[in-house]
């Protein structure tokens, strides 16, 4: 049986922080429930699991999830609810939140909190009633955080969701001209002391800073407001988060105007400051650069974004989810390995009928039995998995930091962090070995330190260990027909299909994150070896496996977004780059926007009538790279602009 579980990870993190079980679960569940989860004797609902992690200052985005159809439907209902709220469709928003309550059977304080939170959103964003929203937010806080009225919160464990509820309550009170009773200060103190995950801190600190800076600006403290805004913007930039960037930039411009009006910042000091750099303890962005960033982001949203997508909702977040459905995964793996339902059931269920019911979504499998079935199929997975296998959340955070460096082409820093990661991981576990080897290959590929043929063969071996869907002849350079549409998506209704009918070579499932990273590196190596058509076909084939799954592509941002953007660049496609831009904006992410917009611009350069438009778009891409700290691609863009349009991109 698999030994490293997320229950044990919760326990080790809790014990390392010296947090008692009673303190962690206060307002959520019983200590006995937590104990069973930590010992792997009971399942933990998705929303409860996320809040437990957040109460420990950690981010649930560091994991990928194998969900039951029931749990995934709840996620989809919540997404539908959010869209209905911001489209101002009150009837459907109320129906969605009622359906959520019905599906959860009204059990548990966490679901009660989410119901109240949803009612508050309807009251404020649709009805425009801040007073009613305030009442619902107080109920939401009472549901899971009974001590929120205390003078200090140092002895409490508070999740990001609960902090969002408190911040939203402070916002409602301010909009009604009421005193907040120190609510903002308590939120700020708690965030800075106890939210230890950098990405999670960036998300919640940005919202707090936006509210607190507005208060300080109203009181005439423009310098303090500016410091809050700029530090919040800097954190979002560091972690590639676009959501809530625009409200902060708007407020930063107001701070600039107030400072200039009061002559708080001497003209010579403003002139000397660089456009981007550190000045004292505050990251400084000039008024001109701040205005430019804001204009570009607003243009992005007008051109590619969803019209309804929220700009300043405190109860929404950037999306970085990785979801997989258990029955899709089990069915695909069983078929490709040639296992019968009887063989799958042996030692796990009394009858093969149960396996059939799971694959038809007529029954659900427990977490323990899911682990047993996946082990039988050769996969070391549970319902919640890190991108490396470890009991330490700090190691997961280090893995994410390396991923960010890879995206920004910061290979020297990446090499240093990789050495630390190797020391913290058990490389005898294949998933860890694969993650490390893939990163080594990325560094070697950038420095041209090893032959591409050697790394390509190695990557195929890394992929084949867990992903056996790419036909063998494809690896030998032959063509690959696209997989049949809707086969796997309808797997739950077509389990009677014989392997001969379905076509073993044509069957596929969406790759998990590490598998997608290997596929992406394989395609890059193919391109370096002059196999451009083969690389593109591999991208298209893999994207098809995502799109025919019942999991929405928004819920697979890191894998799908990466492959979609690279496929668009390979094809130099207007349509695909537009699709990639919409995907990144919908997920509130900044990291891929510059590359996708550059592709969008380059795809139109053959049209002479669009010459000036393309020049402006490439300039915008240059500043998007600057905003996301991708200096490598920014430098490439600057040279490209000079070659094709003449002059310095910053002077036009």
What does this structure look like?
- This protein has 32 helices and five strands.
- It has helices at residues 6-16, 21-25, 31-38, 46-55, 69-86, 90-103, 109-126, 130-144, 160-175, 183-194, 198-218, 222-238, 245-261, 267-272, 287-304, 326-336, 341-345, 352-359, 367-376, 393-407, 411-424, 430-447, 452-464, 472-475, 499-502, 513-528, 532-547, 557-571, 574-586, 593-602, 611-627, 631-645; strands at 63-67, 276-279, 282-285, 323-325, 384-386.
- Helix 20 (393-407) runs antiparallel to helix 21 (411-424).
- Helix content is 63%, strand content 3%.
- The model is unreliable at 266-281 and 478-507 (pLDDT under 50).
- The protein has 652 residues and is an all-alpha fold.
- A hairpin with a 2-residue loop joins strand 2 (276-279) and strand 3 (282-285).
- Strand elements, count: 5
Distance between the termini: 62 Å
Percent range of helical residues:
55-70%
User: Gyration radius, to the nearest Å?
Assistant: 25 Å
- Largest sheet, strands/sense/barrel: 3 strands, mixed
Low-confidence stretches: 266-281, 478-507
Number of helices: 32
Strand line-up in the sheet with most strands: 4-1-5
**Average pLDDT reading:** 87
The best one-word shape is globular
